[in-house]
Specification:
This protein has five helices and 41 strands. The protein is mainly beta. It comes from Banduia mediterranea.
Length: about 750
C-alpha cells in the first residue's frame, strides 16, 4: 500500500541500488533520493512490502510504481500464463531482469525464469526498477526498455525463526517458515533456510488445483575486510491447471469444466486434461573481493536446471484433422508414413509437452573508485541448452494414461536450442564541483548466437522437415550518456540517453509463418527529470522519449486443440513519449500519503504487412502481402493514463490500516484499434495489528488483506491479434487473513 509507493521516489530515486547508488537520503526506512543517479529509477525496500499479504508475487509490487502496468490472475501470480508486465509500452520480453545479479532471461513461462519462482516476498530485500533504460552493466539480451533488479536479503546473523500462515479466497492455504543462524562455527558463514507451501483452487473451477512448493537457502561467508562469498540455492516446484480465456463480448473460447459427460468432444475440455508443471533449481555464488582500497572485483557464477510439462486434451475430431494434415500430400505429408497413427473415434487424445534444459553463466565486474570518479569494466557469458517437444498420443481406454505402445498421432514440434551470450560493458562516472554535477558515460556490446536443430513446428512435421540452422545477432556499440545537476541542496535535474539492442525472440525462429528477414529490435531512450526531497515532502517529475526501430510484434493465433502459433514480424518504427510524476508526503509519524501519475503515448509510425496464403497453395509458405492499417494507433495493452493513490495510517495500540487505489486507462486489444477495453479502478485495503516489541504477544502480527475491495470487473492479461483480443479476467475480490510470528 503506501509503503509500496514510498519507493516511488524512485523516479527520483534509488537507482542507486546496485551500482550507481551513493549518498541516498532516506525517509524512515525507505530510500528516497539517490543523488547522482542519471536515469529514471524506482526502488522498493523490504519494509515497503511487509504489510502486503505474504507470498505475493514479486512482480506485483511493481504496479505501485510510475510507468508500470502489471496484470495477474491473483496477487500470488499463481497462474504464470496469466501474468503480464508492461513498462512504458515494453512487454516483459523486452525488459532485463536479475536476481542477486543473476540474469533471469525472460518472463517466457516455458524458456524463461520469472522471478516468482526463485524468491519469496519474505526474503526480498529490495527491488530496483529502471523505467527507461537499464544501466550498461545490466546482463540481458532483451533489455530494450529498462531493467528490474531483485535483491534477496542477507542472513540475519542470529538465531531467529519467522513463520506465517495465510488462509483466504479460493481455498488458499499458505505456510512459510524461515530459520536464520549465527555463524555456523567460529569464523564460519551465517545462513538462512526458508520453505513455503501454497495450495489453492481457481475461482470458478474448484477441481483445478494450483500448487507450489518452494525452498531457499543462503550462506554468507566474510573472508576479511571487503571480501565476501554468498552462496544461494533456490528450488521451486509448481503444478497447476490452465485457466479459461475469453473474447471481448464475454464468450468463453476455452470453456473448461469439471464434470465428465461421456461425450469425448465435450470431455476434451474437462479441467483434468489441462495441467502444467515446473521444477526449477538455481544455484549462484556472489563473490566480492576488495583487491585494494580503490579496486573491487565482483564475480557471479550461476547454474540453473529446469524441467516442465504441459498436458492438453484434444477431441477425436480435432485429432483426426491433425492426422489428416500430416498424411495429406497437398500439405507436403506422406500417406504412407509410419511415424503417425490414426486417432480413436470415440476417445480423447492427449498431447504431452516436455521441456527443460540447463544454463550456466558468469558475470564479472571490476570497479576502480576515487573520491570523484568511478570506472567500471565488466562482462557476461552464458551457455544455455533448452529443449521443447509436444507429441499427441493415444490414451489407454478407461485410464486417461498415455498409450506409448502405439505411434504418436502427430508431433506439433520437437525443438532443441543452444544459446550463447557474450556481453561487455565500460562505464565511467565523474563527480564534480563537490558532487553537484555528475557525468556518466558508458557503452556495452552484445552478441547472441543460437543454434537450432529439430522439427520447428506442425507444418514442418507434416512435411517431414528436420531443420538445423544458426542465427547470430550482435551490436558491439550501445552508448549511454547521462548527467545530474544539483540546483539546490534539495532539487536535482537528471538527463540520460541510451541506445539498446535486443536479440530476435527464440519463438520467432520457429514460428509457422517464419520471416527470414526478421531484424533485431533497437531503441533509443531519452530521460529528463527533476527530483526534490524536502523533509516530509518528496516528489519527482520526468519526461521520456523512446524511438524503436524494427519493432517485433507478437500476434496470437488462438486454437487450444491445434495449438495456436504466435506470429512475429517487424512493424517498422514505434515512437513513445510520456511523463511520470510521483509525490510522497509524510504528514506525521503515523500518516503517509502518496500518488503517481503516468501519461504515455506509444504509437505505430508505419503500416505493416501481414502473412497470407497468396497463391492459394496450402503446401507453400505464406508470404507478407496484405497491408494492415495501424499507422498512428496506440500499441496494444498500453494505457495512455495511469493514476495511483496510497495512504497508510498507524493507529494507537499497534493497529494499522493501509489503502491504495490504481486507475488503469483504456487499452487497445488489437493492433488496428478495432477493439479496446475500458479503463478501470482497483481499490485494495489492509487492516492489522502488530504486537509490541516486548510482552505476552511479542513478535505476533495479524493482517487482513482485501484485494479489489469493490469487486471491480475488468479484463486483465490481453493477448492481441490484428482485429480481436483474447482476455483473462482480472483479479476478482479476494480476502486473506495472515498470522505471522517471529522468535
Amino acid at each position: 500500500m503506501i509503503m509500496l509507493v514510498l519507493g516511488l521516489l524512485s523516479t527520483m530515486s534509488a537507482g542507486a541500488l546496485a551500482q550507481d547508488e551513493d549518498d541516498n537520503a532516506s525517509l524512515g526506512t525507505t530510500t528516497v533520493v539517490g543523488q547522482g543517479v542519471t536515469r529514471s529509477t524506482s526502488s522498493l525496500l523490504f519494509d515497503d512490502i511487509e504489510q502486503e499479504v505474504p507470498g505475493r508475487s514479486p512482480q506485483s509490487y511493481l504496479n505501485a510504481l510510475p510507468g508500470v502496468n502489471v496484470q495477474m490472475s491473483d496477487p500470488f501470480g499463481t497462474y504464470e500464463f496469466g501474468t503480464s508486465i508492461r513498462i512504458r509500452g515494453f512487454s516483459s520480453e523486452q525488459i532485463g531482469v536479475t536476481l542477486d545479479g543473476v540474469p533471469l532471461e525472460t518472463s517466457d513461462v516455458r524458456e524463461g525464469s520469472p522471478p516468482n519462482r526463485y524468491v519469496e516476498s519474505e526474503n526480498l530485500g529490495e527491488i530496483s526498477l529502471a523505467q527507461g533504460s537499464g544501466d550498461v552493466s545490466m546482463p540481458s539480451y532483451h533489455a530494450l526498455g529498462g531493467s528490474i533488479r531483485y535483491f534477496s536479503d542477507d542472513p540475519a546473523g542470529i538465531w531467529a525463526v519467522q513463520t506465517s500462515s495465510t488462509a483466504g479466497s479460493n481455498e488458499l492455504i499458505r505456510n512459510f517458515i524461515r530459520l536464520d543462524t549465527p555463524q555456523l562455527w567460529s569464523g564460519g558463514p551465517t545462513a538462512y533456510i526458508a520453505a513455503s507451501r501454497r495450495r489453492s483452487v481457481q475461482p470458478d473451477l474448484h477441481k483445478a488445483n494450483m500448487e507450489r512448493d518452494h525452498v531457499e537457502a543462503k550462506f554468507k561467508q566474510v573472508l576479511g575486510i571487503g571480501h565476501t562469498l554468498t552462496l544461494a540455492y533456490r528450488y521451486n516446484k509448481r503444478d497447476d491447471h490452465d485457466m479459461p480465456q475469453y473474447l471481448l463480448d464475454g464468450t468463453n473460447i476455452f470453456p473448461l469444466h469439471e464434470t465428465a459427460t461421456g461425450d469425448p468432444e465435450e470431455d476434451a475440455l474437462n479441467i483434468e486434461g489441462w495441467t502444467n508443471g515446473r521444477t526449477d533449481q538455481l544455484v549462484s555464488l556472489n563473490a566480492e573481493f576488495l583487491l585494494t582500497p580503490m579496486l573491487r572485483l565482483t564475480l557471479v557464477p550461476y547454474y540453473e536446471d529446469k524441467e516442465g510439462y504441459g498436458v492438453g486434451s484434444v477431441p477425436p475430431s480435432a485429432a483426426l484433422g491433425l492426422y489428416n494434415d500430416a498424411t495429406n500430400p497437398d500439405l507436403g505429408g506422406d500417406p504412407g508414413r509410419d511415424d503417425v497413427s490414426l486417432p480413436d473415434e470415440d476417445i480423447v487424445a492427449k498431447r504431452l509437452e516436455s521441456m527443460g534444459g540447463h544454463r550456466a553463466g558468469l558475470t564479472a565486474a571490476l570497479r576502480w573508485s576515487t573520491a570523484i570518479n568511478d570506472v567500471e569494466v565488466g562482462g557476461w557469458y552464458e551457455d544455455y541448452d533448452f529443449y521443447q517437444r509436444r507429441p499427441l498420443y493415444h490414451i489407454v481406454p478407461g485410464t486417461g494414461n498415455f498409450d506409448y505402445s502405439q505411434p504418436q498421432i502427430i508431433n506439433y514440434y520437437d525443438r532443441t536450442f543452444n544459446t550463447k551470450v557474450t556481453q561487455y560493458y565500460l562505464k565511467d562516472t565523474l563527480r564534480l564541483f563537490d558532487g553537484k554535477l555528475t557525468l556518466a558515460a558508458g557503452t556495452k556490446g552484445l552478441k547472441v548466437e543460437r543454434k537450432f536443430a529439430g522439427i520447428a513446428n506442425t507444418d514442418a512435421f507434416n512435411r517431414g522437415q528436420y531443420s538445423e540452422f544458426d542465427v547470430s545477432d550482435k551490436d558491439w556499440f550501445q552508448p549511454q550518456l547521462g548527467a545530474t545537476l544539483a540546483l539546490t541542496p534539495q532539487e536535482e535535474l537528471f538527463v540520460n540517453y541510451a541506445e539498446n539492442f535486443s536479440a530476435t525472440p527464440r519463438n520467432a525462429l520457429v514460428a509457422v509463418t517464419t520471416n527470414e528477414n526478421l531484424e533485431p529490435e533497437t531503441s533509443r531512450n531519452v530521460d529528463l527529470g527533476l527530483r526534490s526531497s524536502r523533509g516530509k515532502f518528496s516528489g519527482t517529475a520526468s519526461l521520456y522519449y523512446i524511438d524503436y526501430d524494427d519493432r517485433i510484434l507478437q500476434l496470437t493465433v488462438n486454437d487450444p486443440f491445434r495449438v495456436g502459433e504466435d506470429i512475429y514480424q517487424n512493424v517498422g518504427s514505434i515512437k513513445t513519449y510520456g511523463a511520470e510524476f510521483g509525490l510522497i508526503w509524510t504528514a506525521s509519524s503515523r500518516l503517509r500519503l502518496g500518488s503517481t501519475l503516468t501519461l504515455n503515448s506509444s504509437k505505430f509510425q508505419d503500416n505493416y504487412f501481414a502473412f497470407e496464403d497468396a497463391d492459394g497453395d496450402p503446401s507453400t509458405p505464406e508470404t507478407q502481402t496484405r497491408e494492415v492499417d495501424v499507422e498512428d494507433e496506440q500499441i496494444p495493452d498500453t494505457p495512455e493514463v495511469m493514476l495511483s493513490l496510497d495512504a497508510s495510517y498507524d493507529l494507537p495500540h499497534g493497529f494499522f490500516v493501509n489503502a491504495d487505489a490504481k486507475y488503469t486507462g483504456e487499452r487497445s486489444a488489437s493492433t488496428t484499434g478495432a477493439e479496446t477495453v475500458d479503463g478501470y479502478t482497483v481499490l485494495n485495503a489492509a487492516f492489522g495489528y502488530q504486537a509490541a516489541a516486548s510482552g505476552l504477544l511479542e513478535g505476533l502480527k495479524l493482517t487482513v488483506n482485501v484485494y479489489n475491495l469493490l469487486d471491480e470487473e475488468y479484463w486483465g492479461v490481453i493477448s492481441p491479434d490484428e482485429n480481436v483480443g483474447y482476455f483473462n479476467y482480472g483479479n476478482e475480490r479476494t480476502v486473506y487473513l495472515t498470522a505471522e510470528a517471529q522468535f
